[in-house]
């Protein structure tokens, strides 16, 4: 029993230990999986793990990691051998790691975050790597300019453990049997406050570039100095094909011979304590730098083009202000490319640029304090669709902080035989500008000198063409204020004169125009003020203003037009009514137009005629005065007549004065189908008047009815004007005429006239007497009408669209000398062709001579018509 009991107890202990071990393994696996998920490791596996005396050996390792920002890393390694960790005074260290073959595929985050600036903590973190890391061969796929590109080679790094320094790097890259090697040695103090880097770049074991650099971080500020030298090599076209995968596209056909290029650079920079980055260097660094470049053959610069020539440059600067102490350049750029060209239309982009800068002898009599000024001669030429040249003198005073750059005696020449800019065609462009200016740490100033001008043989757009356009630009000033390289104020101002010998537009008669005014343009507002004058007499004072929000405001004032000297509107506007001639009076006007993105167009126009006289069609008019206002708001048009008066009208018989006051509104889509409102519509007629009572009329149907009232018409005045021999009389008539106006014309239906009180009608004509003698039935009529005293004269009348007037006349009265004055009643139907009547009246000497000529021409055309 005792033995059995002891066996049972041992079995129970083994079970408890096993259970605990299983639980521990399960928990450990759970924690391990958690760690993998936190690190984004989706796959981790290995094969062939074994332990030897030197350390663990792993036949194969596979890892895939996906970052939260979308980046992905895949690693596959073969033949890993890791030496056992060693402990020294600084703690545990990994002495050696060797990898026979490494495959790596890295896809960066889609956001394309930039690499952070280098710092000492990053360097210290490299000490955690094995002291001796060797990768016999690697195949890596990394992002490149053309997508995802492979790299093949080997790597060996060594460092001193926890102190890191000294450290070395041996990197070998292989491509199509060629080798590119980088050897770098990093040394310095153990606290990393002083670092020295020596690097050599070799191509097939021949030196290509050397770098020597020292970073000193021991004092209150950091210091960085170094030298870089690049020497030529035999021709290696394969290198550019390979580098083309990693660099932005090179200009077409660019494969420069390396042996032709020489480059030397040196620098000594100081900046406050902090991380090292390009922004810190640009904004806070001080010091000096030099560059010597010799490019006897075109050399491709990504984002610039093919550069050829020589450059010698020495710079000195502080707090972001870097200016040359010496500068000499003779550079030629072909096949230019890059973002610096994107702001120019393609037709303006140069094909080649040539820059020449050379030392200039100091001016005689310079003061001693000007010895720090660097005088240079500057020449810049471009070839392409536009040929341009800049030639002048630069005087650079590099004394800090009051540095300045002065441009003197500069001349700019621009010539282009033909240019196409979007929908605009330019021909024979020619510009000559004389320029001076100054740049300092706060302001840029440029001024155009005397005789600066720009000429165009022709400027053509759809519907618009300017010929022989000349502009005078002398006196224009450009001022730009900046702080720390940021522009916060820009102003272009000065006089501006433009003149074209011929302007053609579908709405205008071809003629010459001239503009003289002033330009004031800034970042937030651009304004142009001046006068536009046509060679045929029309003048307009214009003000154009463009705001930052895109609003364009145009204000125009028409120069007073005195029509006795001619009508410049008729000589300018093709749409001027050909039947309207004005030869007296004065016309004034002004307009305002406002355009804003996303807001309906707004405009206002006001015309103020005063005493206008002339001819419209076959009617003479005189004394036209008043005010006409038009307003445009998006799709709506409003017209307003304020106190419009025409002193007299004469379409063959004298009328007037005419007085109108009212308004009209309609949509631009249907301008003739709107709302008409009037407060006054009155015309003096035959000693009386005709008028419309104030009312409104909707014209949406295309037709309208007006109740025309007649009051106080004098029979004597009518018979004085009516061309009937021996007809006279006295009396007053009133009436009402329903006037219908439609697409076919106007007509009157059921009109009514009647006398106001008794009157006299006298028709003493030898023709009517002869008719009475020949026809006894007409004897009484002829005798009665010679002196007929009526008590009733009324008529129903109608008028059709063809101009026929029909009257049903009822006449009641007596002739005191006929049959003892017994009552006599007449019913007379009359018909008159009003256009023919007016034509006969217009052929008399009571109308304007030009009207009579128009009538005669119309009659001749009608008689010649088949």
Automatic annotation (TrEMBL):
InterPro entries: YdbH (IPR021730). It holds the Pfam family YdbH-like. This is Dicarboxylate transport.
């Amino acid at each position: 029993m005792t033995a059995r009991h002891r066996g049972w107890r041992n079995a129970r202990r083994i079970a408890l230990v096993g259970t605990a071990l299983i639980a521990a393994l399960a928990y450990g696996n759970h924690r391990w999986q958690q760690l993998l998920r936190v690190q984004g490791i989706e796959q981790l596996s290995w094969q062939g793990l074994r332990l030897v005396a030197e350390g663990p050996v792993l036949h194969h390792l596979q890892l895939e990691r996906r970052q939260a920002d979308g980046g992905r890393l895949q690693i596959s390694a073969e033949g890993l051998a890791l030496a056992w960790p060693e402990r020294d005074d600084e703690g545990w260290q990994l002495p050696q790691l060797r990898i026979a073959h490494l495959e790596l595929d890295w896809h960066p985050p889609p956001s394309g975050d930039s690499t952070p600036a280098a710092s000492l903590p990053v360097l210290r973190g490299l000490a955690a790597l094995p002291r001796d890391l060797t990768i016999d061969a690697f195949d890596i796929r990394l992002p490149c300019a053309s997508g995802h590109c492979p790299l093949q080679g080997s790597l060996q790094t060594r460092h001193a453990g926890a102190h890191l320094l000294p450290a070395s790097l041996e990197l070998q890259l292989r491509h199509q049997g060629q080798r590119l090697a980088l050897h770098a040695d990093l040394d310095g103090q153990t606290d990393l406050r002083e670092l020295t880097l020596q690097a050599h770049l070799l191509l097939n074991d021949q030196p290509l570039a050397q770098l020597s650099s020292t970073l000193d971080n021991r004092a209150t500020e950091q210091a960085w100095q170094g030298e870089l030298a690049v020497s030529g090599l035999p021709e290696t076209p394969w290198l550019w094909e390979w580098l083309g995968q990693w660099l932005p596209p090179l200009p077409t056909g660019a494969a420069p011979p390396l042996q032709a290029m020489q480059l030397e650079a040196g620098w000594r920079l100081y900046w406050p304590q902090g991380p090292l980055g390009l922004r810190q260097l640009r904004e806070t660094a001080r010091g000096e730098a030099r560059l010597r470049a010799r490019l006897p053959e075109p050399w491709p610069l990504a984002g610039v083009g093919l550069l050829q020539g020589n450059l010698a440059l020495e710079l000195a600067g502080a707090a972001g202000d870097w200016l040359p102490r010496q500068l000499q350049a003779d550079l030629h750029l072909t096949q230019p490319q890059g973002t610096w060209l994107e702001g120019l239309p393609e037709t303006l982009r140069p094909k080649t640029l040539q820059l020449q800068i050379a030392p200039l002898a100091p001016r005689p009599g310079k003061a001693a304090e000007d010895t720090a000024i660097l005088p240079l001669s500057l020449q810049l030429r471009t070839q392409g669709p536009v040929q341009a040249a800049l030639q002048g003198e630069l005087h650079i005073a590099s004394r800090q902080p009051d540095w300045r750059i002065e441009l003197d005696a500069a001349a700019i020449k621009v010539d282009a035989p033909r240019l196409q800019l979007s929908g605009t065609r330019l021909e024979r462009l020619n510009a000559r500008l004389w320029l001076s200016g100054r740049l300092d740490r706060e302001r840029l100033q440029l001024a155009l000198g005397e005789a600066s001008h720009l000429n165009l043989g022709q400027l053509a757009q759809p519907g618009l063409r300017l010929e022989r356009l000349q502009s005078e630009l002398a006196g224009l000033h450009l001022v730009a204020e900046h702080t720390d390289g940021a522009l916060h104020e820009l102003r272009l101002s000065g006089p501006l004169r433009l003149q074209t010998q011929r302007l053609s537009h579908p709405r205008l008669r071809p003629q010459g125009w001239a503009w003289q005014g002033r330009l004031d343009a800034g970042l937030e507002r651009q304004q142009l003020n001046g006068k536009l004058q046509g060679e045929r007499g029309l003048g307009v004072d214009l003000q154009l203003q463009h705001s930052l929000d895109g609003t364009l405001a145009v204000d125009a004032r028409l120069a007073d037009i005195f029509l006795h000297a001619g009508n410049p509107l008729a000589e300018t506007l093709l749409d001027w009514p050909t039947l309207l001639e004005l030869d007296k009076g004065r016309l004034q006007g002004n307009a305002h137009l406002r355009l804003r993105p996303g807001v309906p167009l707004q405009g206002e126009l006001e015309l103020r005629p005063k005493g206008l006289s002339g001819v419209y069609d076959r009617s003479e008019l005189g004394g036209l005065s008043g005010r006409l206002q038009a307003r445009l708001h998006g799709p709506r048009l409003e017209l307003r007549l304020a106190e419009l008066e025409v002193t007299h009208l004469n379409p063959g018989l004298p009328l007037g004065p005419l007085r109108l006051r009212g308004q009209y509104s309609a949509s631009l889509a249907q301008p003739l189908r709107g709302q008409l409102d009037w407060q006054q519509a009155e015309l003096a007629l035959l000693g009386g008047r005709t008028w419309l009572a104030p009312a409104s009329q909707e014209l949406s149907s295309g037709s309208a009815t007006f109740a025309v009232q007649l009051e106080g018409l004098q029979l004597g005045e009518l018979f004085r004007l009516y061309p009937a021999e021996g007809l006279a009389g006295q009396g007053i008539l009133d009436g009402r005429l329903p006037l219908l106006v439609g697409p076919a014309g106007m007509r009157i239906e059921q009109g009514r006239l009647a006398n106001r009180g008794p009157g006299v009608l006298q028709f003493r004509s030898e023709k009517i007497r002869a008719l009475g003698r020949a026809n006894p039935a007409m004897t009484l009529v002829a005798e009665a009408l010679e002196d007929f005293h009526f008590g009733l004269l009324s008529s129903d009348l109608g008028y059709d669209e063809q101009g026929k007037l029909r009257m049903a006349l009822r006449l009641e009265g007596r002739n005191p000398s006929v049959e003892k004055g017994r009552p006599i009643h007449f019913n007379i139907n009359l018909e008159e062709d009003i256009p023919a009547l007016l034509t006969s009246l217009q052929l008399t000497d009571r109308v304007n001579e030009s009207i009579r000529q128009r009538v005669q021409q119309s009659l001749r055309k009608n008689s010649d018509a088949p």
